[in-house]
Amino acid sequence: MKARRFTRINFYPSYALMRHSHKILIASLFVAVMIFSYIKTHAAEPEAFVVEVQPSSFDPNTPVDMTIKAVKGDGTVIKEYEGDAYIDVI
To answer: Which of 26, 27, 71, 76 is most buried, by CB atoms within 10 Å?
Structure first.
């Protein structure tokens, strides 16, 4: 009877799966990050911005308080919205 030579393939039955497990892990982590970033960026997109200025009428070179709110289509304010506002004063 001939001695059986043990190789990785016949000694470890799941060697073929283990050989590619790091690629599967990296791919699944990549997919999870992409899904999370899509949900995070598209969860709170405002439909419009509401600009409030106090006082409503003022003279030039007078300080005023300005509040900019991001709102959804139904009018609810997005409290966790973080973004930039660019204002042109004419």
So the answer is: 71
pLDDT in tens, 52-74: 999 988 888 889 999 999 998 88
Exposure of 1 in the CB half-sphere (CA atoms within 13 A): 2
* Every domain of the chain and the residues it spans: 8-42, 44-90
The dihedral region occupied by 61, where left means phi > 0, alpha psi between -120 and 50, and beta the remainder, is left
Contacts of 9 (CB under 8 A, 6+ apart): 15, 16
Tokens at 7, concatenated: 């190789």
SS3 for 45-60, per residue?
CCCEEEEEEECCCCCC
Answer yes or no: is pLDDT of 26 > 60. yes
Of residues 10 and 19, more confidently modeled: 19
pTM of the model: 0.46
| Six-digit token string for 82 | 């973080």
